[in-house]
Amino acid sequence: MKRLIVSSALWLIALMVVAQGQPEYLLELGAGAGVATYEGDFNNSLLGNVNPIGGVVVKYKPNPRMAWAANISCGQLKGNSSKAGTWYPDIAQSPLTFKTTLVDVTVRFEYNFWPYGTGQEYHGAKRLTPFLAIGLGLTFANSSTSQGGLQEKSSSAAGQMPVGFGVKYKMADRWNLTAEWMMHFTGNDKLDGITDPYGIKSSGMFKNTDCYSVLCVTLTYDLWAKCKTCHNDRD
After folding, report:
1. Which of 73, 84, 143, 227 is geometrically suited to a Cys-Cys bond with 100, CB 3.0 to 4.6 A?
2. How far from chain centre, in Å, is Cα 186?
């Protein structure tokens, strides 16, 4: 019995030493790819007209429960007025199609349902956790519309608010895989190149404005290990 107690104590001490040897990282850097869907006047489906989008991300993690993420993405949106299932007074004669290239710049806050990590650098941390995210940003759009053989180009920029959720998985000690879905509410009604096709004036980020959703997978690498003994240093 004594040997069992001593062995168990030594085993627990060894685990504590290993845990103390695992650093906690403050930054993540990586890239992701997925699909973007236009959610506006010329689309009546949440998953219709998907197009590719990709970008880079950097995250600052003050603790295992939360993170601040800065993201820059580039992608495309497409749509067709004839597939929207709605009659538009100004474009009833012939269908309108559009193609928009957008650049998305956001800063957002992520809250993890459970402490995130390998469980070695932080007691109770989980390799897999769902999370919620909300932020602010800018959307820059270059649109090309085509109707009745005529083409028109336009550019616009507007503020936006991304809101969504996802799942994080710690693949290895320093590798992270994230799958997420975000809805980007914009203060712009010109992502499709047409302003107010219903004849209703837009305002804010929620009244008659264009939006887009993004479903993507991101791979990041941990950087900048947190110093565990800096508070003990004295000059």
Report:
1. 143
2. 15
